[in-house]
Specification:
This protein is mostly helical. It is built from four helices and no strands. The model has no long low-confidence stretch (mean pLDDT 85).
């Protein structure tokens, strides 16, 4: 949905207008919100593993831990090709 919205308004993004600045800031804000949600989810998994007496690395084998590890390796590749 968001990709369609940004494609539809691409001509506004190229001229450096205020709309361009607002949409770029919305993109940054959405990434920050997603990172905060993923981080809180990972922290909850870490606390749950710690309370269960499991080792500290157990949280990396949960879904948010796996996503974080994948993103750590993929972000440099994504940044290189964008």
């Amino acid at each position: 949905m968001a990709a369609f919205f940004f494609e539809k308004w691409r001509h506004h993004l190229e001229d450096g207008s205020e709309l361009s600045l607002i949409l770029k800031n919305l993109q940054y804000l959405s990434v920050l919100i997603a990172a905060a949600i993923l981080g809180n989810w990972y922290l909850a998994e870490y606390k749950k593993a710690k309370l269960a007496g499991q080792p500290w690395y157990r949280a990396f084998f949960s879904l948010p831990g796996i996503l974080i590890v994948i993103l750590i390796f993929l972000l440099p590749l994504i940044a290189h090709f964008i």
